Amino acid sequence: VASGGAAGASSLLIVYPLDFARTRLAADVGKGTEREFTGLIDCISKTFKAGGGNALYQGFGVSVQGIVVYRGAYFGLYDTATDVIGGKEANFFLRWGTAQVVTTAAGIISYPFDTVRRRMMMQSGGKKKLYSGTMDCWKKIAAEEGTGAFFKGAGANILRGTGGALVLIGYDEVKKVLNDVIG
């Protein structure tokens, strides 16, 4: 869990500004001058000018927390559930179904972190701040919108997670083949 979290945090450190820009650009609707940004570079440079380097990493801490929670649930639940169904020798479809349940559970458990991350990203570089920080964001969402607000969009995220289940099973299958070949 710790090594998965550390690996996720390390890669996130590099790609986070791009994820940040993607999120901001996706929400930047309109045509021509109605839009806040003209593209990726414009989004990154305007955000940097408005708030410095920290603005590009708004919500980074909660993203790292979310990765640790997701990966911990993903691998921890998968190993436990795989043992329950008969180990790595169980039928492919049974293991895939188990992996799908695990991926869905991990996604639901970690989704509130993703919601807070997106909210923090969306206010970065703007003049009006809805949240003074990550904890304030958690508190305001819970108090003003209710617990359900943390899970808006979770259904689409679950559908997207189907690939994650295939990765878990694929990893096991590749490991089996390599063990047979290498010994």
Automatic annotation (TrEMBL):
GO terms for cellular component: mitochondrial inner membrane. One of its GO terms (molecular function) is ATP:ADP antiporter activity. Belongs to the mitochondrial carrier (TC 2.A.29) family. It is found in: Membrane; Mitochondrion inner membrane. ADP:ATP antiporter that mediates import of ADP into the mitochondrial matrix for ATP synthesis, and export of ATP out to fuel the cell. Cycles between the cytoplasmic-open state (c-state) and the matrix-open state (m-state): operates by the alternating access mechanism with a single substrate-binding site intermittently exposed to either the cytosolic (c-state) or matrix (m-state) side of the inner mitochondrial membrane. Catalyzes the exchange of ADP and ATP across the membrane. Its main location: membrane. Pfam families: Mito_carr. InterPro entries: ADT_euk_type, MCP, MCP_dom_sf, MCP_transmembrane. It comes from Prasinoderma singulare. One of its GO terms (biological process) is mitochondrial ADP transmembrane transport. Gene3D superfamilies: Mitochondrial carrier domain. This is ADP/ATP translocase. The keyword Cell inner membrane does not apply. Keywords: Antiport, Membrane, Mitochondrion, Mitochondrion inner membrane, Repeat, Transmembrane, Transmembrane helix, Transport. The keyword Transport applies. It is a multi-pass membrane protein. PROSITE patterns: SOLCAR (PS50920). Monomer. Solcar repeats lie at residues 1-84, 90-177.
